[in-house]
Amino acid sequence: MKQASEAGLLRKVIGASSLGTMIEWYDFYIFGMLAKTISTEFFPEGNSTAALLSTLAIFAAGFIVRPFGALFFGRLGDLLGRKSTFLLTLVLMGGSTFLIGLVPGYRSIGIAAPLIVLLLRLLQGLALGGEYGGAATYVAEHAPAGKRGFYTSWIQTTATLGLFLALGVIMLVKMNLPDEQFNAEWGGWRYPFWFSILLVIVSVYIRLKMQESPLFAKLKSEGKVVKNPLKESFRKRDNFKMVLLALFGAAMGQGVIWYTGQFYAQSFLETKVALNFEQSRSVLLWAILFATPFFIFFGWLSDKAGRKWIMLLGMLLGVLTYRPIFNALLENAKTEQASEGNRVLSGTKKQSKLLAGTADSLITVTRHFELAGGIQYVQEQTDTLRSATTSITEGKPVIKDKVLPKNLYWKYVGLVFLLILYVTMVYGPIAAFLVELFPVHIRYTSMSLPYHIGNGVFGGLVPFIGVLLQTTFTEDPLVGLWYPIGIAALSFIIGAVYLRNRTPAS
Amino acid sequence: MNAIKRILGIVWLLSGPLIIYFLLMGAVHNIDSNGEKDINNPVIWIIIIAIFFPIAIGLMIFGWYALKGVYNDTATSSVDQQ
């Protein structure tokens, strides 16, 4: 009877923690996924690159403040308790997300718009920094010692499920609205932000009913709550050396594997492979759906075989196979193939418009093709007609909106599934790994910082440094991968040499 | 194994300043007020250097600890040492 009630309590603990954390991830992701629309809406028009960069800077700022959130809320969590702290982070995150959806565009309130959005984005980053450590610690402190990997792995699914939910909601809205209505100042792009408030209300209600973690409650009742968790974590060498080891030997590699599998892959499918909106998202959705159970599997396995080698194997596989996998994604959808057997699906569509401030005209020619293998795509070429000389300057043809045939589509799902499988290997066991590394009284602070530096800084910069590398080495479309490969390799070496494999027997 | 840990400690210790050097050199070579590429934008470099500077110092401290043998026969966690 007692066992049944304990199992029920554990299910509630996991459910309440996971739901809230998933919502936090959902909130954080929708901003990044709608970056293009947001940049047009909140930043000065005229230079789309500058606007996009501004948004990227806000995106990066969101990631950079995460470690500060980890310190701030980690300290609170070790002083006041896990429950009240991760309740606060949830409200802060949900509130910021909802408010972003209410900020009028730049055209209405000028520079105040990007400033408010930046502020709210920073609050999101802070909240996220505090949430994860709390949820993982809370669940781990309820779980029996030999099952921490299994129970905390449910928390580990939330980041991916949050991405899944964000992708799904955005796709749903976008597919039911014409582009003009979706991108309008008060258009459909705001709906995912508004939707967040409903999710948060439900989650806060559930979390309010939960009790404090038993280990922290015991610590508090015994008067052993530490007065300065930051000092204890980072000034005491025995703790600080573990913080460094957790960062460089695990979280750093885990962060880049995670971002490459979930974010870089999607941006790669969209920009380099040039798949259309629906396929570039749905490939990832399927892959996530198939791979998500493996978070639980590897969490469970880590209870039996130890955390270390499962995580390190995930990193090693990333190092060895990233380039072949991404190369296959690129090569299989190539359109520069022999023209024999290719056919034009629709005739030439010409659009002409005057170039602002001159008498010259832009002529855009759009043609739809289908390759012999079944790939369909749109080729768009914009030429400039000089009015003075009546000469034409030809533009470069741009390939976009590729649609893969069924067999190739599922091959892509399989390839992206592999990328996310590596994510499940590094990410499934890491909460239990981090929790077990530090004592109860400084656990929230000590585990949050390496996790958020690993994921927020090292992981969050994967797309950013990818763009920087691509700008320098323009010939190699896969050059952006050298950053995650290098970081994962470094983390693998450090982890292999310095980490000890923890198993129940040890 | 402990010898390897110590020797690699020198590598991590030296990697810290090397990372900072490459970042500073990258910034000096690429920042260009007339440039239009991302890589010419000083803000991006400032962000990256500001983030990686303390991390590089952390790597040096990690290397120093490794060199000093702090990680020899590593305990599974700091819990085990208390």
TrEMBL record, chain A:
InterPro entries: MFS_dom, MFS_sugar_transport-like, MFS_trans_sf, Sugar_transporter_CS. This is MFS transporter. Pfam families: Sugar_tr. Its main location: membrane. The chain crosses the membrane at residues 12-31, 51-73, 85-103, 109-129, 150-171, 191-208, 243-264, 284-302, 309-326, 412-437, 449-469, 481-499. It comes from the Bacteria. It is a multi-pass membrane protein. GO terms for cellular component: plasma membrane. The keyword Electron transport does not apply. Keywords: Cell membrane, Membrane, Transmembrane, Transmembrane helix, Transport. It is found in: Cell membrane. The keyword Transcription regulation does not apply. Residues 13-504 form the Major facilitator superfamily (MFS) profile domain. One of its GO terms (molecular function) is transmembrane transporter activity.
From TrEMBL, chain B:
The chain crosses the membrane at residues 7-31, 43-67. Keywords: Membrane, Transmembrane, Transmembrane helix. It holds the Pfam family DUF6814. This is Uncharacterized protein. It comes from Niabella ginsenosidivorans.
